[in-house]
Write a structure and sequence with these properties.
Layout: H1 13-36, H2 44-60, E1 84-86, E2 96-97, H3 100-113, E3 124-130, E4 133-140, E5 143-149, E6 155-157, H4 160-163, E7 181-189, H5 192-204, H6 213-221, H7 226-230, E8 235-244, H8 252-261, E9 271-273, H9 276-289, E10 297-304, H10 307-313, E11 315-316, E12 319-320, E13 323-327, E14 331-344, E15 350-361, E16 364-370, H11 374-377, E17 398-403, E18 410-414, E19 439-443, E20 450-456, H12 463-474, H13 486-494, H14 501-513, H15 526-538, H16 544-550, H17 558-568, H18 571-582, H19 588-591, H20 600-611, H21 613-623, E21 645-649, H22 657-666, E22 670-672, E23 681-684, H23 690-698, E24 701-703, H24 705-713
Bound molecules: 2-(butylsulfanyl)adenosine (IVH).
Length: 714
């Protein structure tokens, strides 16, 4: 989980749901503005931040994942950065079945549809549904020319360079019957072994954590740098095709056989089945092998074999009528709750974790489950409603756990009959288990209710918070200090080498004077120590926005930190303002300028941070060692666009929208998405429509792209 979303650990289920709903609206709005109106309302970075937070809430609260989720493979609009590819033959999704009865209904539907064709036996292929990402690979005269993601099914992204790094995908296909043009479709995935190896490598060098093979495969395919994709060991199974100048067979079975001959991996568990019983039997066989396959599958897919019959049966809203995905149920198991441990996060949130009797769920040994917060243990959901039938969780309880995909397991039920007679209700601690400070549930100023999360008030006195804060400080999206990962930070803290961020930068000087040199410590050596010191030195002049983010102020994520950096330009200015807000009688609204997108929660949090003398001292110590670079916004006093509100409309020919926006902002202008009486300049390219008319009727100055470039250059 990225440090920017660390607060997610503290959300109650209700808050998480509310936020997910809010993000859904915001992201959809941004999508429409970008894709349909071609008039982005927020920056790419802001968009990415919204999407990231959305995904992380989904990962932390998988049960809240909405049916119309914006993440995942289906329906995600093509993202910026990769060229768009329109699929000549759309990449469809599949209707889903969860029970044998659903499958029977599907087959009976087929029989009714073809009722006039006497003695027709409907044969289906039955094959695993691979839990990866679909891709379409275009071959012209046998040469791999372009590969694309599914995107929204009609338009995907051109990820040819990344797909070329996958050994399973042939660069050239030869042999009998290769059509002039053929698009091979299938699933890119990662094996469990490769995923675990990547995770281990990353943990060893303090890199990011990977959640599951599918997300990792998705992230790998979207790398701008194909050499990174190449290191991820992705694989491919072919199972379908798109545009084709001719076909080597008239059924799925023959097509898959031809595709196999051309050199693509096809799934070895694919069978041809001729009755409901055979299909269900095959489903059970595949389900039984699921845990030992070595890659994730989430069901099986039935596809009508004969291609001519497929055309007759047809399609409905983006799905073929002739295919069905039969999903596996979420995997469940029964075990015993051995203990409830409390973990303390960076911002002091006390998060309970269930320690379970180890049990295998879908081939994975589960020993822990998340418990969110004390209300959850008491059997109360985020909305105040009873959960798990209203049963609380007690140590000794027999519980049902569930694992969906690779997400953190959940306790979905308590078996009350199995509760030991002496099992006592769990008493949530009101003191931090690490430092002994009082742990409080704060009053949420917005809702007027108590927060679901109890927090340790020890702040940096609390070793748990201090270590988590240090991990956040050095993380990739914060100060990004290579060679200082979670493991090293924990070790250095325990040894007393690094207690606060400032200590990182004095480590080398202290080490030179020390008798117990770092290079002699197990796990280190002269080379790695030199590398570490070099990486630390390289971090002495951080970008201001990263630096503010790395301070770990609650509610100040990357986007907010960037807004502060932009507003204050220097760390001194930010510090001074925050300190006046923190001084007695300081009024946040009187001292902070109003910043678009920054509300009271953030400002109060900054004030609270600076009200703690220890935080200010830690910051000041740090500032003796590092010099954050002032955030440069070239508001050239001479630029006539400084302070103006600009709207871009129509198509631009010399600049991308992103460049145009960045250019305007660099010159101190504000970019808006719609024209109003507050608009100063409208830059109109060919095809400008209602915005241009609006500008003309309001008498707003309208310029061409070239005129804009001249203005901007002055
Ligand atoms: S066939 C016309 N076969 O499932 C049907 N899809 O829900 C085209 N998938 O986007 C898809 N394994 O990513 C098909 N053996 C398989 C599959 C499979 C996984 C995925 C694929 C697709 C999604 C549809």
């Amino acid at each position: 989980m990225s440090a920017g979303a660390a607060e997610i650990e503290g959300l109650s289920e209700g808050e998480a749901r509310a936020e997910l709903d809010r993000l859904q609206v915001e992201i959809s709005r941004a999508d429409i503005a970008y894709h349909q109106n071609d008039s982005p309302e927020i920056s790419d970075a802001e968009y990415d931040a919204l999407k990231l937070r959305y995904r992380e809430i989904e990962l932390a609260f998988p049960e809240l994942r909405r049916a119309d989720s914006l993440t995942g493979r289906v329906g995600a609009p093509a993202a910026e950065g990769f060229a768009k590819v329109r699929h000549a033959v759309p990449m469809l999704s599949l209707a889903k079945a969860y029970t044998d009865d659903d499958v029977t209904a599907f087959i009976e539907g087929g029989h009714r549809f073809f009722a006039r064709d006497k003695d027709l036996v409907l044969e289906f292929t039955t094959e695993p549904k691979i839990d990866g990402l679909s891709a379409s690979l275009r071959y012209e005269k046998g040469v791999f020319v372009r590969g694309a993601t599914r995107g929204d099914g009609s338009v995907g992204e051109d990820i040819t360079a990344n797909l070329r790094t996958i050994a399973d995908i042939p660069q050239r296909i030869t042999g009998d019957g290769v059509p002039d043009v053929i698009e091979i479709r299938g699933e890119v995935y990662m094996t469990h072994a490769d995923f675990q190896a990547l995770k281990a490598r990353s943990a060893a060098d303090g890199g990011q954590d990977y959640v599951n093979p599918r997300n990792t495969a998705a992230g790998s395919l979207r790398q701008k740098d194909p050499t990174i994709t190449a290191q991820r060991k992705l694989r491919f199974f072919a199972y379908a095709w798109g545009e084709a100048s001719s076909l080597p067979a008239d059924n799925q079975w023959g097509m898959i056989e031809a595709i196999r001959r051309w050199g693509f991996p096809v799934n070895p568990l694919t069978r041809r089945t001729a009755s409901i019983d055979e299909m269900i039997e095959q489903y059970r066989l595949i389900e039984a092998q699921r845990a030992t396959l070595g890659y994730d599958i989430d069901g099986v897919v039935y596809k009508l074999d004969r291609l001519d019959l497929r055309e007759r049966w047809g399609y409905v809203t983006g799905e073929p009528r002739w295919a069905l995905a039969h999903k596996f149920p979420a995997e469940q198991a029964t075990t015993v709750l051995k203990a409830i441990d409390i973990q303390v996060g960076r911002t002091g949130a006390l998060t309970p974790v269930a320690r379970l009797m180890p049990v295998t769920v879908g081939g994975v040994v589960v020993e822990n489950a998340t418990l969110h917060n004390e209300d959850y243990i008491r059997g109360i959901g985020g909305d105040g409603e009873p959960i798990r039938g209203g049963y609380d969780l007690r140590v000794g309880d027999t519980v049902v756990i569930q694992r969906a995909g690779d997400v953190i397991p959940q306790i979905v039920a308590v078996i009350p009959e199995k509760r030991p007679s002496d099992a006592a209700p769990y008493v949530f601690p009101d003191r931090c288990p690490v430092c002994g400070s009082e742990a409080k549930r704060e009053l949420n100023e917005k809702t007027g209710r108590l927060d679901a999360v109890r927090r340790c008030t020890g702040e940096l006195v609390c070793p748990a918070q201090a270590v988590e804060q240090l991990k956040h400080f050095v993380a990739r999206d914060a100060m990004d200090i290579d060679g200082l990962g979670d493991k090293q930070v924990t070790q250095f803290y325990a040894e007393g080498r690094i207690m606060r961020p400032a200590d990182i930068f004095t480590l080398k000087a202290r080490d030179e004077r020390s008798l117990k040199k770092l290079k002699d410590v197990e796990g280190f050596g002269a080379v790695s120590v030199k590398k570490l010191f070099d990486a630390i030195d390289a971090a002495r002049e951080p970008e201001l926005d990263r630096f503010i983010f790395s301070l770990g102020i609650r509610h100040v994520g990357e986007t907010t930190a960037a807004m502060f950096a932009k507003t204050f330009s220097t760390i001194e200015a930010f510090r001074e303002t925050a300190l006046s807000a923190a001084s007695e009688g300081g009024d946040i609204h009187a001292v902070f300028p109003s910043i678009d997108g920054i509300g009271d929660t953030v400002l109060r949090s900054v004030r609270d941070f600076f009200q703690n003398a220890r935080n200010v001292e830690a910051l000041d110590e740090l500032l003796k060692e590092v010099r954050p670079r002032p955030y440069v916004v070239t508001i050239s006093a001479t630029s006539e666009v400084a302070g103006k509100t600009v709207v871009f409309t129509g198509s631009l020919e010399k600049l991308t929208r992103g460049e145009a926006k960045a250019m305007a902002e660099r010159l101190g202008a504000k970019v808006a998405g719609s024209v109003s009486k507050n608009t100063d300049i409208v830059v109109a390219g060919p095809g400008a429509g209602s915005k241009l008319t609006q500008a003309q009727s309001l008498g707003v100055r309208v310029v061409t792209e070239d005129e804009w470039l001249v203005m901007a250059a002055k």
